[in-house]
Write a structure and sequence with these properties.
Elements: E1 10-13, H1 17-28, E2 31-38, E3 41-48, E4 51-56, E5 79-82, H2 86-95, E6 99-106, E7 112-117, E8 123-128
Length: about 130
């Protein structure tokens, strides 16, 4: 059976879900629309355009590797959000003290993109489609 529609949500785990959610509000213009206890952990939901991001705290039953190896890991590398006014967004991120590990670049398709360092080591690609 095929997938129908767009993705439903991305789920992140954070030692401080509210602070992580507030980063997405401050730096990417998100909107926190729910903050609740769910299945043994705080769960903060953020809307970013048409995307939903769930950020939850650690559950007692979790076994999270807290080591920082500095090496590339397997699994999800980053997630990408489509934006308008990419240059202006990057200027705002920099003005607020945010990090841009990979500055503005152009893809062969003509789309422009950059990578922003999010909370808790999350990498976010911002992409502006070719006009």
């Amino acid at each position: 059976m095929p997938v129908v529609g767009h993705y439903h949500h991305v789920h992140l785990i954070s030692p401080d879900p509210r602070a992580a959610a507030e980063w997405f509000v401050e730096f990417l213009g998100g909107n926190i629309f729910k903050d609740e206890e769910l299945r043994g952990a705080r769960n903060v939901r953020v809307r970013l355009g048409e995307c939903m991001l769930n950020i939850r705290g650690e559950r007692e039953s979790d076994t999270i590797d807290k080591s920082i190896t500095g090496k590339q890991r397997f699994g999800i590398d980053h997630f990408c959000l489509e934006v308008g006014g990419l240059e202006g967004m990057l200027q705002e991120v920099t003005a607020k003290g945010g990090e841009i590990p990979e500055p503005l670049f152009e893809l062969p398709s003509g789309n422009r993109a950059a990578y922003v360092a999010g909370p808790d080591g999350v990498v976010i690609e911002l992409i502006e489609p070719k006009a």
